[in-house]
Amino acid sequence: MALTFGILTVSDRCFKGESKDTSGPRLEQEILNKFPMAKIAEKHIVPDEVEEIKECLKRFVFQSYNVILTTGGTGFSQRDVTPEATKQIIEREANGLSHVMTSKSLEKTQYAMLSRAVCGIKNTTIIINLPGSEKAAAECFGFISESLPHAVSVLTGKKLEVEKAHKDVQRTSKVKIDASKRDRHSTYPMLEVDAATALVLNECAATNKTEEILVEESLYRILANDIFAKAPVPPFEASIKDGYAVRASDGLGIKKVRYYAAAGDTPIDSTLKEGEVIRISTGAPIPLGADAVVQVEDTKLIKSQDGEELEIEIKINPKTGQDIRKIGSDVEKGVLVIKRYNKISAADVGVMAMLGYSKVHVFKQASIGILSTGNELCKAGEPLKPGQIYDSNKLTLMNLLKEYHYQATDYGIARDNPDDVYKSFAKAFEKNDVVITSGGVSMGEFDVIKQVLTIDFNAIIHFGRINMKPGKPTTFATLDYNDKRKYVFALPGNPVSSCVTSILFVIPFLRKIERAETIKYPFVHVSIPEIKNSDARPEYARAVVSFKNGILSAHTTGSQVSSRLNSLLGANGLIIVPGKNLQDINNSASQPIFGQTTPNIFGQYSIKPISQTCLYKVLLFSELKYV
Ligand SMILES: Nc1nc2c(c(=O)[nH]1)N[C@H]1C(S)=C(S)[C@@H](COP(=O)(O)OP(=O)(O)OC[C@H]3O[C@@H](n4cnc5c(N)ncnc54)[C@H](O)[C@@H]3O)O[C@H]1N2
Ligand code: MOO
Ligand SMILES: [Mg+2]
């Protein structure tokens, strides 16, 4: 259900324009983060006056908005009257909401006890008083927002949705955490990266579904239809220069200037006579009878009157067709201009606009839901409690998807317990084809993702381990939910691991589901000093790959531990460093590329490397850097 909201900022200072309203816009942002389909129907600012607050609340209620959020005027100052005004409007109080906000806020500040916020119901609208400070308003909204869809469903009598909401709340996982019974070794076979990639792409069925969207919003989407020229471009003969439209056969000499034809003018329907010229601007239609344009530089003014030219002299003999853009000379009518499957560029958008298209058919993208898992995670902007860290994975992954032109919906943070993970997955499966999670896939007793997927959703886990660093516990599963196929990428929690595995597996998958073909990242080979890998797994080391003076070069971005997200800063490639064992074999067999010969203590010669250089395969996931 798409909720409608009204936001009312109550503040003398904001009303008078003495300070900027930041709480209203912040609430708008919080609402859309939480409910991407919600509609912010109205926003308004009133002073701290009971009557004005009441008037606005009445108007919002009359519009039957589902929820009205007020911000400001809930404290102890003489001017704080929002609760008084709200009480005069509501028919029934909703004390639970104010109670939750106060008690949760008390965990952050004892001054929360000074809040007098009122929540209540008028007709089918819920009115919620929130504090005036931007941060507190956003926090309090966060405490109660989860309950709003259900509350609105009950209030508006939407039986099916009420039942569903009840079912969602009651959902309990069949998975039971028992540390003593957990597997002591992973039961999932370790796949090589290539095998895992092939498996992911093989499982993915291109939907081939298309949708019609506005040309102006089509950048980077994949075109589903060929684009033909419905009409020639230009559609009329047009001047290429600012000058005079002439009859070429009139040749040189003094001519009478008849009138002016500017770009955008309707073509003149009287024919140009012998000895006449018409002043014309670039892009203007060529008048009847004219068959050439003489640029102003090749003429001389002979006679003028009141700022108008009367006579000019043509100084260079014109040739027929000179400086005239023929009909269809840029694009002929009926030709194929842009091919289906093309990824739409800025120029494509421009060409479609030029051809008169306002809408275009593109391939539908998969709908993507994304959630983080972890008890330790705290949303950016909120104060960290001991033992907590900020949730960086969700923002990294959502924005990585954006870099490849995919949009994902945020399904929040699921805590490390089977019920919460189960509920979050169910919610995400309702509306999405693909669900991406991070964390909870390794060997800890609270790593319950795989169990919830198999036991609660009957999912097939196609793989649960990959021979790579970072990203070992990467998991890929499919399942049917409400008779629809769902794909799950349960990525490792370590920030680098989830990002690298998204680049390697998720992005190619999303492209295939959209386009039927997939992205093939280019590989380059670089010769650089040996990189040690102490792990048996091949390492995908984040690197800056650059091209300088005709030589390809690469260097890693510092420490490559999987937690160090900043190892991705500036990186455009992944150097594939063979696992320790393979490296050892290679080293004993291979010769250093550069070396010098020096006699050893026994007087024999051996190779002494100046610097051990190896040839590495590097995957480029972003543009090469040119230095
Ligand atoms: N006994 C074993 N332990 C671990 C193994 C193993 O094979 N045996 N594998 C290690 C590897 S490799 C990885 S990678 C991690 C993957 O762990 P999980 O996917 O279970 O993820 P968590 O345990 O939940 O978290 C790991 C790490 O990442 C941090 N994290 C999680 N989510 C976020 C987030 N949204 N934003 C920022 N940071 C996040 C979390 O706090 C942990 O530090 O397992 C190893 N263990
Ligand atoms: O494979 Mo994990 O991703 O090393 O850290
Ligand atoms: Mg774990």
What does this structure look like?
The chain has 627 residues and is of the alpha/beta class. The chain folds into five domains: 4-164, MoaB/Mog-like domain (Molybdenum Cofactor Biosythetic Enzyme, Chain A, 3-Layer(aba) Sandwich); 190-206 and 366-513, 3-Layer(aba) Sandwich (Molybdenum Cofactor Biosythetic Enzyme, Chain A); 210-231 and 330-363, Molybdopterin biosynthesis moea protein, domain 2 (Alpha-Beta Complex); 238-325, Molybdopterin biosynthesis moea protein, domain 3 (Molybdopterin biosynthesis moeA protein, domain 3, Beta Complex), CATH 2.170.190.11; 523-626, MoeA, C-terminal, domain IV (Beta-clip), CATH 2.40.340.10. Strands 2-1-3-6-5-4 form a six-stranded mixed beta sheet, sandwiched between helices. A six-stranded mixed beta sheet has the order 13-10-12-11-15-14, with no helix packed on it. Strands 22-19-23-26-25-24 form a six-stranded mixed beta sheet, with helices on both faces. The protein is globular, with a radius of gyration of 34 Å.
Beginning-to-end CA distance, first to last residue: 52 Å
Number of domains: 5
**Tally of alpha and pi helices:** 15
Name the average pLDDT. Answer: 91
CATH architecture annotation of the largest domain: 3-Layer(aba) Sandwich
Strand content: 25-35%
Q: Mind describing the biggest β-sheet? A: 6 strands, mixed
Q: Approximately how much helix is present in the residues? A: 25-40%
Global shape? globular
Bound molecules: ligand LQZAQKY5, molybdate ion, magnesium ion
Per CATH, the class of the largest domain reads: Alpha Beta
Radius of gyration: 34 Å
List the strand order in the largest sheet.
2-1-3-6-5-4
SS-derived structural category:
alpha/beta
What is the H level of CATH, i.e. the homologous superfamily of the largest domain? MoaB/Mog-like domain
Unreliable stretches? 585-610
**How many β-strand stretches?**
34
CATH topology of the largest domain: Molybdenum Cofactor Biosythetic Enzyme, Chain A
